[in-house]
Amino acid sequence: MFAALNAFQAGGVIPAGQQAYTTAGTYSWTAPTGVTSVSVVCVGGGGGGNSYDDGVGIYYAGGGGGGLAYANNISVTPGTNYTVIVGSGGSQGGTSAGGGGSSSFASSVQATGGGGGSGVTGGNGGTINIGTGYAGGKGGNASSGYGRSNSGGGGGAGGYSGTGGAGEANGVNATATSGTGGAGGGGGWFSSNGGYGGGGVGILGQGTSGTAGNQEGGKGGSGGSDGSGIDGANYGGGGGREGTGAGGAVRIIWGAGRAFPSTNTGDV
User: Fold this and answer.
1) Would you kindly state where each structural domain of the chain is located, as residue ranges?
2) CB 218 within 8 Å of CB 139
């Protein structure tokens, strides 16, 4: 959590400040003295991957990546408390459907979580309920057959200027896609650890898009983490086969000329 800067500078100019919430839960943010307008970015939690046994074969489908939403020039009242909700990542499914990631919300901005893998079908990417932004990538479907080499990868988190990458489907001569302004999808492929997690997205503003995994997890976009193993990456990456989705995040910034997706959004 970043410290809030809430004192006036000479001439009554409010210094730039920020506060970030990166652990799932419900919080109360207090608007600092003099701050009447903020910008907010929210990332929903990634969906969990699953394992499905139909008595003939075992299938592993990936979870969808969480959506990303942002908004600028949101009016706030100094000294007033505002609710902030950080979405959790979806649980791994074991022999049932993977859990869906939950939504992140703050000051009229909301991004939904990715869906969990279910049966042989990968979870859908999370969307944007309120604000501007992009959906997470879809989790990869599982192929027919037995074993981890038939896994689907997790979807990448949504980005600031485009959707997250899709997880590799079927593990058979298929590739994950790269994110466009966000994060890359997780790779499936034929290795014994097939069904990797999707890449996450950063909360410091728009950066380089994540690339697709190639026999590995999806790469993070805009400073987000890379997928490693079967779990989704922070923030908002979808889980691969039997992997958990990554939790979401919320970041609030203020100060002259600071606005998402990419204008003076870094740490101060």
Assistant:
1) 17-268
2) no
